[in-house]
């Protein structure tokens, strides 16, 4: 079942923030762009992360010619090991992105199986019928690229995550000339990042946070601990620069920070003098005012270094009064609660905490509205598909495209699984394919479905009621009183009346229905509605029945 239309199949990142993944299909050839993961929302209990559903690709795995990864963030790289376990194809990435992928692949033992190919920004590779041109874009990690993908059906531009920063930390702005050159050839479609489609104006340059850091280093009398993402190499550079200026030594805490910093320094993306960086155990022996530590844990994750520091459970060192903690990040939507809980705990331990709300210690890596307009003007695409964002962000991005003159009919606001086809230069919607969630829970992939998550939610919210019945096998009458156990549902002292009413109801229902084959199911339903009417809560109800 192949045809000569270009098919664009969003498998992640459209209708959500995270797990970005796009498939470009032409004939019996598929090019994958990005293989990301998404972190669960607070109420997805026990789920570590979520990866794209690649059901659609499994039947066509021999068509997959290559995987291009636009940059090293988890929402673009995080599912690579799960993907490679099922589909093996060459992976194309810039040097830093490749380095970050290697760290990940080595940890899961797949490094020998993976075929990694380095492509520098400005270079072109042929992947099946797709000619892919990598062009540099600014983002919050170095070595990010957007893609010009020449297909037999026309030229498509895939922006990746980008912003137009004129003064980036690595002095390497987005490649405007390449965008203009691609536009000159005529662009069939633009697929562009929608993350900040609701933000007016321009995203500030990464430089704007330098003065805030300078202020922190100028005034802090004790130790400084900066928390950030392990992949935020430019933040490491900024902290290193200011540490050098104020004569502090710098140390990295936590395996992912240490490994990423080492790799970025080796590849030349992080320029820190050898005498500036010391191992953490050595740093801890220095005077507090002579060191700055960098760690992970800006999102309130309990197992991260910052999370453990806030609860006094970190192995190597503790927060002490006089410490200054800088959370250099923006809480991912859904994480606000745990971030502020962490901040409160750090204050309680005597630290001074500086975070985005009170000082400009973080800027976004994504384009705002005016930059989106600039990209649309530069590229002048015939068709436009907003990507990377929840549905409201995709719609705002579409509105921006209409403002700059793209007709409504030439814009496709679509969610994961909705195929778009280009036939004879015209865009049309195709069929829907699987585009849902695969939950990863500890070691298990995909064993956990949405129903398990819903059950965990129900248990966490309203607890459970367990009813043990013992019946006379001959007479079908109850032997003794039903045993009722509750957990997380009612507070026992206030619950005595409810428990005896429940016991009475169980007795009556059993006596009335004892010959009914579905006694357990009926009793469960009866109890559920009874308990809901009494308490407005919906505990899970379990009935066990034994005959003696
Ligand atoms: Zn990114
Ligand atoms: Zn992203």
- Strand order in space, largest sheet: 7-6-5-3-2-1-19-20
Tell me, briefly, the overall form.
globular
**Into which percent range does the helicity of residues fall?**
25-40%
* Strand proportion: 15-25%
Number of distinct helices: 16
- What integer value in Å does the Rg equal? 28 Å
SS content category: alpha/beta
Q: Report the bound ligands by name, code or SMILES.
A: zinc ion
Largest sheet: 8 strands, mixed
N-to-C terminal Cα separation, in Å?
61 Å
Folded structure, characterized:
With 548 residues, the protein is α/β, with parallel strands linked by helices. The protein is 31% helix and 24% strand. The chain is built from 16 helices and 25 strands. Strands 7-6-5-3-2-1-19-20 form an eight-stranded mixed β-sheet. A six-stranded mixed β-sheet has the order 8-9-10-11-12-18. A five-stranded parallel β-sheet has the order 14-15-13-16-17, with helices on both faces. A hairpin with a 2-residue loop joins strand 2 (21-26) and strand 3 (29-33). The termini are far apart. One zinc ion (ZN) binds at residues 20, 73, 75-76, 161, 388.
């Amino acid at each position: 079942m192949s045809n000569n239309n270009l098919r664009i199949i969003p498998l992640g990142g459209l209708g959500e923030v995270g797990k970005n993944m796009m498939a470009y299909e032409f004939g019996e050839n598929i090019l994958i762009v990005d293989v990301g993961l998404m972190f669960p929302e607070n109420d997805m209990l026990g789920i570590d992360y979520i990866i794209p559903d690649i059901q659609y690709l499994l039947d066509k795995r021999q068509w997959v010619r290559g995987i291009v990864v636009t940059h090293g963030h988890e929402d673009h790289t995080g599912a690579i090991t799960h993907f490679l376990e099922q589909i093996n194809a060459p992976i194309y990435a810039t040097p830093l992105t490749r380095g970050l992928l290697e760290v990940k692949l080595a940890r899961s033992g797949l490094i020998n199986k993976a075929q990694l190919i380095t492509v520098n920004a400005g270079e072109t590779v042929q992947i099946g019928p797709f000619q892919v041109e990598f062009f540099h874009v600014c983002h919050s990690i170095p070595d990010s690229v957007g893609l010009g993908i020449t297909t037999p059906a026309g030229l498509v531009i895939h922006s990746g995550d980008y912003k137009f920063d004129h003064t980036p930390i690595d002095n390497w702005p987005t490649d405007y000339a390449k965008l203009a050159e691609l536009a000159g050839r005529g662009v069939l479609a633009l697929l562009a990042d929608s993350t900040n489609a609701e933000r007016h104006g321009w995203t500030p340059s990464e430089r704007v946070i330098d003065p805030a850091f300078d202020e922190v280093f100028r005034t802090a009398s004790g130790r400084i601990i900066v928390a950030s993402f392990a992949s935020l190499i430019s933040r490491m550079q900024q902290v290193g620069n200011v540490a050098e200026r104020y004569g502090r030594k710098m140390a990295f805490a936590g395996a992912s920070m240490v490994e990423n910093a080492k790799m970025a320094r080796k590849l030349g993306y992080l320029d820190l003098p050898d005498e500036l960086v010391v191992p953490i155990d050595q740093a801890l022996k220095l005077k507090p005012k002579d060191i700055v530590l960098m760690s992970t844990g800006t999102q309130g994750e309990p197992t991260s270094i910052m999370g453990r520091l806030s609860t006094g459970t970190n192995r190597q060192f503790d927060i002490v009064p006089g410490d200054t903690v800088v959370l250099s990040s923006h809480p991912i939507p859904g994480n606000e609660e745990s971030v502020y809980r962490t901040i409160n705990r750090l204050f309680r331990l005597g630290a001074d905490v500086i975070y985005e709300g009170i000082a400009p210690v973080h800027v976004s890596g994504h384009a705002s509205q005016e930059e989106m307009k600039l990209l649309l003007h530069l590229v002048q695409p015939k068709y436009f598909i907003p990507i990377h964002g929840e549905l409201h962000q995709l719609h705002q991005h579409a509105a921006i495209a209409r403002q700059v003159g793209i007709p409504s009919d030439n814009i496709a606001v679509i969610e994961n699984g909705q195929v778009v086809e280009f036939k004879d230069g015209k865009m049309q919607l195709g069929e829907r394919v699987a585009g849902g969630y695969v939950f990863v829970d500890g070691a298990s992939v995909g064993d956990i479905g949405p129903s398990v998550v819903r059950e965990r939610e129900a248990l966490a919210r309203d607890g459970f009621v367990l009813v043990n019945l013992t019946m006379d096998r001959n007479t079908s009458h109850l032997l003794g009183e039903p045993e009722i156990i509750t957990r997380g549902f009612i507070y026992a002292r206030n619950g005595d009346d409810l428990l005896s009413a429940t016991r009475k109801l169980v007795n009556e229902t059993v006596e009335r229905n004892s010959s009914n084959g579905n006694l357990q199911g009926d009793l469960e339903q009866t109890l559920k509605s009874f308990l809901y009417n009494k308490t407005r809560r919906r505990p899970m109800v379990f009935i066990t029945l034994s005959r003696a």
